[in-house]
Design a protein that fits this description.
The chain is an alpha+beta fold. It has a domain at 211-300: Alpha-Beta Plaits. It is built from 21 helices and 14 strands. It has a five-stranded antiparallel beta sheet with strand order 5-4-6-3-7. Strands 10-9-11-8-12 form a five-stranded antiparallel beta sheet. The chain is elongated and about 90 Å long.
Length: 558
């Protein structure tokens, strides 16, 4: 009896402290999401959903305003992140990944509509079925906001709150298989098709023999003096072929002047090698030239680490090998990220707008590279809050605009307006980097916090009647969710292979990107023992987020 009384008091305290309740849900959700069973984990989104479902069963609710703020932060950030890549689709082979994302989204959309009609599911359930089956949070957010804002009017006899509840419960029921099923299918499908992802990835990497040595780690600057006489008999061309890793920066200083030995030139005893490279390069190669010299001034003071954002049209589509960054600019390329996903740094990787190159080298050399590629971002932590705030405000206003056609009100709605505003600002930021700054860490916290704030509200709302809904239609919904998860993957694979002719390793990455599942990408990269699938993931991810956000609003009309 005392235990029941204590639990009742705890619930009463939490009801009186909404801020405490919210952050408990977020914290507990992260803990649940981090629990691993083998290689499987739910992740924070599912964890927060479950934590919200539990408290929602005890009649906890989140204010509509708080959930709307989370929704706005999340959708705007999705658009901002996708902007640079989305508008450049026709300039590169990104069209293939756009079509892949479109086919997968359309297949899931059609199946969700047909399933809801054949099974006579309640209004709004189709949106939850689509978002849960494809594990797409933007779809769920767009559907619920379209109902809440009045963009879509519920049928007679049903309130907006009832319909939002149908969306939330259908999502909660189908999401688990959507997540676990997607991971299982992505893991088993290559085996069923007789595809050895690791072998295919190695073949893809082997197609570019010059890729060796590119992806440096433990970078430092050192000076060596040539004392090995054997090295003075090796011509410059052979030195470059046999003793250069393709990424490190190597300069020769002779009698106080930096020189560049030609193909037929030779090193001399006493020459100093100024090297910016990895520890492995120093120990395995440069140390054979002679002895390390302690410089008069620390070499670390002469170098910096910075991020260079690709913006200029002249370099978009060029490969890392064509740019020849180490020799032309005297800086070392450490890694390349695309949509915040590290991509394999091979010599034939082509740069795309919005790519971020992490480089190490003297400041003046980094600045020269920045002029060539676009814009240098150094350790500046501030976010352009003016652009951020007015961007979200503009998105809301755009969402309010609608055209009346008979009884139908046609407009972008809140999701479409915020997405459009984010896309435009993200794109303009890539063209004019003097405004709209949002550092990667700031963008991550706004996007992540916005999503989890929204997801906590979904869980609290669905928790009130999820048991009743599951008992009434749970098995049917679960079966429909399995179809919506499984079929788009199979259709996407065969469309990608037979029509688009995408390499299997890149295709499986593209499928996970089309379903916006980072957890599935980790499964593919582990199976391939290579980062190559991330190229396909980043190719499709931006388009999938936009398409699935639009789908969330549109599916309500079917």
């Amino acid at each position: 009896m005392d235990e029941i009384t204590g639990f009742t008091r705890l619930l009463a305290t939490l009801h009186a402290q909404p801020v405490l309740t919210l952050f408990l849900i977020l914290g507990i959700g992260y803990l649940i999401g981090n629990v691993r069973i083998g290689s499987f984990s739910l992740g924070p989104v599912a964890g927060v959903l479950f934590a919200g479902l539990f408290l929602g069963h005890f009649d906890f609710r989140m204010s509509a305003g708080a959930q709307a703020v989370g929704f706005s932060l999340f959708i705007f950030s999705v658009g901002y992140q996708a902007g640079p890549r989305f508008f450049d689709v026709l300039r590169t082979d990104g069209l293939k990944y756009f079509l892949l994302a479109l086919v997968i989204a359309t297949t899931g959309f059609v199946l969700a509509v047909i399933g809801a009609q054949l099974l006579s599911l309640a209004p709004g359930t189709s949106a939850g079925l689509l978002s849960g089956g494809l594990t797409s949070s933007p779809t769920l957010a767009a559907a619920q906001e379209a109902i809440r804002s009045g963009q879509f009017a519920p049928p007679q006899g049903m309130t907006a709150d009832d319909m939002i509840g149908n969306v939330a419960t259908a999502y909660a029921i189908t999401y688990i298989f959507g997540l676990a099923g997607l991971i299982a299918i992505i893991k088993l499908l290559p085996q069923a098709l007789g595809i050895d992802l690791e072998k295919e990835a190695k073949a893809l990497e082997a197609a570019d023999e010059s890729a060796k040595g590119l992806q440096p780690a433990n970078v430092s600057a050192r000076i060596y003096r040539v004392t090995n006489e054997a090295m003075t008999k090796v011509p410059g061309k052979q030195l470059q072929t046999d003793y250069w890793d393709g990424a490190s920066v190597v300069k020769v200083r002779r009698n106080g002047e930096v020189i560049q030995p030609g193909p037929d030139g030779f090193l001399q005893l006493g020459d100093e090698l100024l090297v910016l490279g990895t520890v492995d390069y120093f120990t395995q190669t440069v140390s054979r030239m002679g002895e390390e010299v302690t410089p008069e001034v620390s070499t670390a003071q002469a170098t910096e680490t910075a991020q260079v954002v690709v913006i200029n049209k002249g370099v978009i589509g060029k490969s890392v090998q064509e740019l020849d960054i180490a020799r032309r600019f005297g800086v070392l390329l450490a890694n390349v990220t695309r949509l915040h996903i590290p991509i394999p740094l091979t010599a034939d990787v082509t740069l795309q707008k919005g790519d971020v190159l992490s480089v190490v080298g003297p400041q003046e050399h980094v600045d020269l590279l920045g002029e060539e590629l676009g814009h240098v971002e150094r350790d500046v932590a501030e976010t352009d809050m003016v652009t951020f705030a007015f961007g979200i405000a503009a998105g809301v206003v755009i969402g309010l605009l609608a055209v009346k056609v008979g009884q139908l009100s046609i407009g972008l709605g809140s999701a479409g307006g915020l997405l459009a505003s984010g896309l435009v600002i993200g794109y303009l930021r890539s063209v004019y980097p003097v405004f709209g700054r949002m550092p990667a860490a700031a963008r991550w916290i706004l996007m992540e916090f916005g999503l989890l704030l929204f997801m906590a509200g979904v869980g609290l709302r669905a928790g009130g009647d999820i048991i009743e809904t599951f008992l009434a239609a749970g098995p049917v919904l679960a079966a429909a969710g399995i179809v919506v998860t499984t079929t788009p993957i199979l259709v996407g694979y065969f469309f990608g292979r037979k029509v688009l002719n995408i390499h299997p390793v890149l295709l499986f990455g593209g499928i996970t990107g089309s379903m916006t599942s980072g957890a599935s990408l980790s499964v593919v990269t582990k199976a391939a023992n290579s980062p190559m699938p991330s190229l396909g993931y980043t190719g499709a991810y931006a388009f999938a987020n936009v398409l699935l956000t639009i789908a969330g609003s549109v599916i309500l009309y079917f």
